[in-house]
Batch of 4 targets.
Target 1
Amino acid sequence: MKQSPELTKVQEKMQPGKIVIDGMLGDDTRPLVDIITEDRGVVNGLGLTHEEIADFLDDMVEQGKAGLGDPVRVGDFTVQVEHYRGRIPCPWADGVFPKVLMRLVHGPSGKRLLVSALGLHMIREHGFYQGSGSDYRVDPKIVALMMGL
Amino acid sequence: MVQVLALHVGIVVAIGALLAVLLELADRFIANYGECRIVINESEDKSITVDGGGNLLGALVDRKIFIPSACGGRGSCGLCKVKVHEGGGPLLPTETPYLSKEELKNNVRLSCQVKVRNDLRIEIPPELFSIREFRGKVSRILDRTYDMKELTIDLLEPDSIEFKPGQYVQLTAPEYAKSDQPVYRAYSLASDSTHRNYVQLLIRRVPDGICTTWVFDYLKQGQEVSINGPYGDFFLRPTDREIIFIAGGSGLAPIRSMLFEMVHEGIDRKSTFYYGAQARADLSYVEEMHEFEDKLPRFRFMPALSNPQQTDEWEGPTGLITEVVDRGDHDFKEAEAYLCGSPGMIDACIKVLSVKGMPGDQIFYDKFA
């Protein structure tokens, strides 16, 4: 699919050193539109929506906040939510987000996810789960497994 | 057919983009807006005259009026807000995501997005007039914990700073191997305000953070740096109330500065500092805080660990900082609280203090936001 100039601009902001030190695309060199399209297909195939995935993760963040930075048990999960000083802009330029980071560990499967407040916003509003190889990649299949699907 | 259509769309988009670039270039190099008067806070003394054409943030910075900004005017941090009452032109789509309804109603704009093309009438907080840019040299970098460093910066030009303990400065991380543009980040001043020729900052590493990666992995002792400030209204109020300080991690910085102030000013108010950490390895300045207990007879330092390790051999208070504060023996209705840390920690502490009867106007805080 052809990528719009706007999305190319967004992809430029996802490069290393622009908003975050290692960028948001990992080792994925494809155009952003292809990354988003493929993930949309995966999400649809799982019978989920971006919003449902974001809601699930958001709920974990909210419950994890009770630990004030310490890990807390939430059902089968260990959740640690940490705040760091400052805010971070979305590459789509539609908001700035606190530097909140959730470390989510699913006990039964041992699967782990690193999810930032900005990452959650990008899933919900832009269907972007970050590139493969990125530490912050939220693989929809892993989320589905964590959701018990 | 689809290919032909796509080709035509592509041509139209390309022409549009080219025209936009030409317009921007013409605006920058050909258009002459002459001199523009920027009336600030309805005061002739504070008003400035600048050559039109640039953006408002740049025009103010050129006249040494510093508006807090983390991205250096690229419209991505949403911090450089000022009220523009006249002459700012239409609101841009690049601004609206960063402005609340209340701010829109009050003419708040992002100063980096407002072009100076005619006279303007603007309003900025008066305290910003005392902000200065300082050039300094890093005289010491000290590991305070595994993820927290203390920077000491000797001031070169100007060579002294006046600040209220509790305030913060912005540190500039220049272009370096991992970032092709400078960024600006806020850090509380941790130092003794009577020592005006240097400042100390306490910086915790942010995973993937552009500024903290520079501080931790690239910044060297002896290197020149730039800061601007001081900013903020988090400082000790001149009352006789008992003080409850609460902080976590690098939130200790402004409290440390306030404790120096209490020593120098002879402020002998009953005070307790609850400092929360997970394990002993996350605690810093413990010895120095106990030294403050000797200098301030009515001050108590109360570090608390939420997840002490066996090897910590910890005998002090344990639990979340909210639980430890909740168990504290204070006259909460009459005391004042000063909080510095993450928004989650601060919100949770405010809840505890409120339940204990502390009125909201006796709670002061600096959220990491």
Target 2
Amino acid sequence: MLRFCCLTILAAVCAHSLNAQVGCAYYDQGCNDPVPLVDITDTPFVNDWVDTEGCTWSLTSTDGTVSGNVTCTMPSGCPSVTFIVTGDIYAFPQIDGTRGSTSFAWTGSNPQPPATCGGITPVSSTYSGTIQNISNSLIITAAWKNVTGESGWVNVMKSPADFPASETTTAVGFGGSGVYVSVGQFRQILNAVSGSTDIFKGRQVSEQTGWLSPYYDNCYYSGSAYPKWTTVDGSGWNVGYYPVDPPYIVNLNVWADDYIGYPYTYVTGYRNHYASGSPLCGARIPQVMYIGYSTGWSEYMDFYAADTVGEDIYRSSVTAYRAGVSQTNNK
Amino acid sequence: MSTRRIWRGTAPLLLAILAMTGNALAQSTKVIDVNEPRPLWQALDTLEAVVGSTINYEDPPFENMADCQDVSTPQQRAAQPAGWRLIVPRDGHVTAEVRVPAAGTVPGNDVIFDVGLLLASYRRSNLPGDFKVEQANGAVYVTPTKVLGADGAIRDVTSPLVVQITIPNAQRTVVETTEAILEAVHKATGLRIVMGAFPYWPIETVGFGASGEPARDALARLFAQTAAGPLSYRLVFEPRPDLMRDTDYVLNVRRTAYVAPIAPLGAAPTAMSAPLPKGVPGNSPFRKKVPE
């Protein structure tokens, strides 16, 4: 945001979605996410895929190869049957402006126990289809076909949905030159319960202004030519947008970057108007983070973290803050 | 479990307008009431949110201390060097009752009528300077026409952004392009304008040039090229009696009628759950019925 950060460099600092596909800075207008998902299950033992045919898929995916098992209920009085799963997922190439998607094909075979029970014989079957990004935590519709030639459609849902256990913020410098030289750049990792470093790739996060203290801009004075910093901008970010380039992105659960701070014109203006104090003045704005979900029919967001962003202006430097992490630029 | 749905799109703005109006569905008017320095700036911000139309505003060039005031507090003065002051334009009261559209934006003539109500209130309060209202570039412009001169006499003034400028065609960031326009104004008028608030995405670039074009028209053209959506500006003058001023004007750009989203109270971390959709009846993928 550059508005004071967080996007309107507006008025002051902002939280801004710099290194993200164009569009996410104006999240209220919608933001096409081109990032495909590359992992399907937050393993080990965090969640499964449950379908509407009474089967539960416990899967892992490594470099596109899927393995695990699927257990299906059988008629009353019969034991559940477990199948060995083999398969794959394929992330289509990421193209700006095109929503990211990943194809999948999972086959359950070698039923155990294999015997007919209650008039039902367990048979091998394959599920296939496409998972749109953002919905990697929710419901997908699969086409199925079994070894006897029967086919149909089934809905599959991950349970429970993937949800960040926490978020780690790293200070990565200031926003270049000109008015951005005083705007701090912060990079975040969404931490998974399992420690997975790719399960949130293909998801979206966004920010809103919170309510908690500290909440102030004591640089502003009534009549100031610079607007008061009162909000974050409401930006959004595509998680895992940079798979390789820039190479310093090493975790695919990264969203980059949140830009926080007063534009440099504010800094010089306030320095001229405050002769003493250390810091001369500063601001703190509560920030609330949301992660997006999609069911294929509707999209919504859920709260996952709350923190504070802000900046202090000193006579010859600025210090920007996000979630307890700070960095200083001697400008 | 406290999962909530927070709809994107126009919902935040709608909620903000609802909050401002109390109950927009039941009321067709809203009272705008501002009492502070540069009250037209804040009043027009509010009007813009109500009517959804782009309204640009420019300060008069305050140069007489009679149009200014010191807003420093005793505590601030005690902490600062002797003689330190915070000089800003004289504050005052602006109020008007404007119509709230049931949906969409208000026709341009109605917006001008509402601006006229605010301007009439400004004049009644005997606040600094005077203004005119124009329509151009699909927006409303409120620009200064008179100000109290340093010599105590009222003098005519014009917007510095009506000056014609030329900047070479080039691919630049939106901020760099804006700064190029402002630098061209500086060369033509001697007036220094710096960027204040702006909603631009830092690496968003545009191909842009201008040849003998009024600066405000160039700005309007630039605004139309950005992905930020409709934009308006507030050109704010640093009063000349302010000895600590470091520029003549600050250009604050804002997204027209945009209200940054505010998180609902009571948010708490939660996992999400959703009901499974109904499956398709018929055959079963893993179960084959044995013929009897």
Target 3
Amino acid sequence: MPKRTDIETILLIGSGPIIIGQAAEFDYSGTQGAKALKEEGYRVILVNSNPATIMTDPNIADRTYIEPLITPVLEKIIEKERPDAILPTLGGQTALNLAIDLYEKGILDKYNVELIGANYEVIKKAEDRDLFKKAMERIGLSMPKSAVVKSISEAEEVIDWIGFPVIIRPSFTLGGTGGSIAYNREEFYPKVKAGLDASPIHEVLLEESIIGWKEFEMEVMRDKNDNCVIICSIENLDPMGVHTGDSITVAPAMTLSDREYQILRNYSIAVMREIGVETGGSNVQFAQNPKTGEFYVIEMNPRVSRSSALASKATGFPIAKIAAKLAVGYTLDELSNDITKKTPASFEPTIDYVVVKIPRFDFAKFPEADPTLTTMMKSVGEVMAIGRTFKEAIQKALRSLELGRYGFYMGLENVDENLLKEKIIKPNPDRLWYIAEAFRRGFSVEEINKLSHIDIWFLNQIKEIVDYELYLSTKDISTLTEQELEKAKQWGFSDRELARLLKTTEEEIRKKRPPVSFKVVDTCAAEFEAFTPYYYSSYESLSGKVEEDKIIYYRDSE
Amino acid sequence: MEKAILALENGYFFYGWSFSSPVRETGGEVIFNTSMTGYQEILTDPSYKGQIVVMTASEIGNYGINEEDSQSDRVWVNGFVVKDVPNVYSNYRAVESLKSYLEKNNVLGIFGVDTRAVVRILREKGVMKGYIGVGDISPVEAVKKARSIPDISELNLVAEVSKPSVYRWTQKSWKWPKGYEEQTEFHYKVAVLDYGVKRDILRLLADRNLELICFPYNASAEEVLSINPDGIFLSNGPGDPATLTYQIKQIQKLIASEKPIFGICLGHQLLSWAFGSRTYKLEFGHHGGNHPVKNLKTGKVEITAQNHNYATDETKLPQDVEITHINLNDNTIEGMRHKNYPVFSIQHHPEAAPGPHDSFYIFDEFYNLIKECKK
């Protein structure tokens, strides 16, 4: 079935100013969506209060309003432009909240405007904790023990059943604002009060703490024929307890067997169907008990999210663009994969590299803020790095943070052991470097796992990098073999870090080390030819070809 | 850790490091698999007999090896090639590392290889023979050895992977948290022709209360029919279907018996020959867990697990065979149904293991077909 012809004008709501929890990724998704809809011949009306966005450039939409994102303004725009439909799923939480309000005030009915992508019931079901919980019960999925309360006295009634520590999540807030964890009764009451105050509807969710469980995310897409595909799985290096936006995340998931991966795949699709997202992308978050394998559903976003932006760039699958096309009636098999051209968009990307995202914090500018990471998002940005291995990707990500650190070294030799342990127990922006320092001091993977609950797979990867760093520092550039230098580059050591460890200059390292290989992000692990790929750098092993009269050696670069 | 070389018959070679086993060398048909999870299932899938498998996902071995996910009782691949393999694995079900598992099974695994470069060559030049050697082997020698490996179509691989005698299967599918449970109900009797059947196929049939009696690959049609089965299942398996002329003849007799028949992968390919069509070799095969298949009856797209190098020749299929499923990447046949006999088959792997579960419904269709025919 081709696109819908009963609608002509579509209103797209942007996400407004850049704030913690809602940043440039929604400009990225909105711009993609607007372009995709225009490409299909729809008249696109855009409203966003933030002029410093690509989407508000004159050539993106047919008509752009730079106006406050509030219901009365939206109503005026609707009255004037008479859109047939609103696509509220590309503008983050702001756009969804506005869509809900427009519906509840009867404005959509009055002007006969349809919500596409996600309708009112869907948004409510996904966003309202109670409705969501009931929906999950209907499809037999477990969630942490929880209760929604609207007052301190209601909170008191349920806290014994839930137990401590308890997570306090205010309803309908951006990036988990006002959220916290209480470890005892003393902390509990003031934190519940703060949460109630932060919620626009004066409501908080009290939730069983599953701190230390592993955390996973799935990016799902669905079309109107109920075709569902998983675009990307993501594993959080930081276990439950740290907001996803503040977590170091890795794609694809690293420690799931196929049995478990398929459980999450089935659950994600079941959640999407039960919540009723008819078309577009959603993000479903899960926690796993590392000892028993039990999964809990944590939440779902019935819209393009921060993670979708990461998943798009991590896989080469343009989630927002495809979501916009699905919203106007296309099915996944009718759309083509932008990168391969010849294969359809109804497939699941497979990747032959590892992607690591590390959030960027700026506590120097906010001296009052507590740098402990909790369920409330505090990061102001993030870096994403691609490498052929986890080690390469994480080391690239570390130096991309522009903190003046070129690997796992930040000069913590003089930190006393108690502080070191505390910085590993309590999530904070420098935790990775404290962990590395602990390994330098001889801590074992098991000890750090006990302190941090970070999975031993990740910890051992970091330990191996640190061990190799220590080995390299016993060498100098003249005693290091070619093979050892190749390994260092494949493990993501920067020229600069190597120069420091090997007591030489970056220029010397560059002269001796293997040349860079450029590899491609193509959605399909090279199975099909890529026409519009993008590239990342890596250091590949030697390949070659035996020809009639000679042997050619090369490191493959695309 | 010793240096290793992977050489292809067309002269390309790739360096890496051995990570397993006292085995010093191996050869086989080199294929790549794009599944991001499920290496244990892939290693133990009898259909990979005769092949060196290159995994495209770059970190392999992370969740170790467990006691539950194997698709047979041993590793069948001739060799295993990955980009990176960890020294520590992590998963609540894991009991040992990928390294030790391959060592126990005497299978050579190498890592550090530019697997993407291998895939790019296989994609362009097609599947080919390859050789892996550990130690100081010159590229010229390695390529020569790759060329001397017998072609997969010259090998009788099914005979090596099939169980030699008749057996019963009663284990149902894995479910969290209980794991495996035994079958308690038996509605219809099904004869399984085991050409190298994967355990999860049997489990999905057992889930549907089918009483499974498995026959070796060389069982005659008469033997199979002697138990008076209500349905017949033709399994997956390794190698070139064109070489299995005895089996194709038996299948023609089974079709003539008018019993309900369901084939998967090799079973599907053998049915193609039995119907009077043929199979041809795909350039680089389909191996992975992300292939879009369209069900032509419902119009819906299933994401499927695939592992095959041969496909049914559509132009030679008789009029009374209907195509039910196609692959949307290259439009090859993924499923067919005979219009006059209760016979249907699927080219891909509806049982997944590893892969998405979108096609489990096909096992229901087999059950329903048997029920229908019993009436």
Target 4
Amino acid sequence: MAERQITLEVLRYRPESDSEPKFQTYEVPCPDDWVVLDALNYVKDHLDRSLSYRWSCHMAVCGSCGMVINDNPMLSCKAFLRDLPDHIRVEPLNNFPIERDLVVSLDDFMEKLTSVKPYLIPREPAAEVDGTYRQSPTQLKKFKPFSMCINCMACYSVCPQYGLNEGFAGPAALALAHRYNADSRDQGRSAREDVVASNTGIWECTFVGACSEVCPKNIDPAAAIQQTKIASTVDYFTAWLRPKNDKENQVKGEDA
Amino acid sequence: MSNRPYIRPLPTSWWLKEGRYVRYMLREATCLFVGLHALVLMIGILRLSQGREAFESFLAGLWSPAGQLLSAVILLMAVVHSVTWFNLTPKAMPLWVGDTKVPGWMIVGAHYAGWLAVSVLTLYLAGGL
């Protein structure tokens, strides 16, 4: 198989010795069918065992190997060398603290993800005798595109709003909230509203749209956020039209 | 998190780094020109309330070379504003007919059709047609 020489420029940061990250260059002989992750593995196996990066499945499913490759956040296992020039610059995801080399801290992301209650919240939990929750193919279609997230954080890396305001819940978490809100088996929208409809939720998004452009799973978080904005606005205005008792009942229900 | 995580600062020039951010900032900046047009209209109403002479001097200002240049720039920015936002509408308002999603071009097309209808109606009411 044809081979070519790639120059891999990797941003290194070793917290025990470096005051700031700096680039280190490696020359890597690469077969045509390699992806950037293969080149990194070559460096780790043959050139420099101290290089740190995350990866697991090597098939665009686990979401571990998200990194910035030639200024674009992508999965390194899905970034084919044949689509890239001979000089490739690899950096950790933007907008996250760097732990070491290409490894970033996941703490803030995990907190944001759990804050939107990303699980089914039915009004009445079904008893075992009722069997499974039923859902038609049409109902499934409404949320399925938003359920494909693999938590690679590429969308956060490219979101200037998250970069400027780390309080922002961010694209993946809000898209996931929308995924559950749009699920016919779920009635947990009001339970998610505190986070989702807050100033650090959907209203912090200014529809830059970069999240949707870089998502390796074509999820379109920007669309999810705009749709949630509309639903939240409709909620706000229809709340004034609802009978008073209904509003009180709803508040009681939320407290419970 | 480790003891010494490194946080890379985001420079104020972040939006100049990539074409998509520049396009976004341009889209956002167009609203200033739409606002400017609203301001010009409000000044027009104010001058109208001050009498015929005041309103005619306002109109003369609008028809001056500087006034025409300003109108042309505002029109261009208003078109960019409308086109960029219209093109984003399928994301914000997906429509379903039964179990089929209405294609994005139909939603965008409906917005352009509405724009055309309102423009024609405005021209008709203003006596231009």
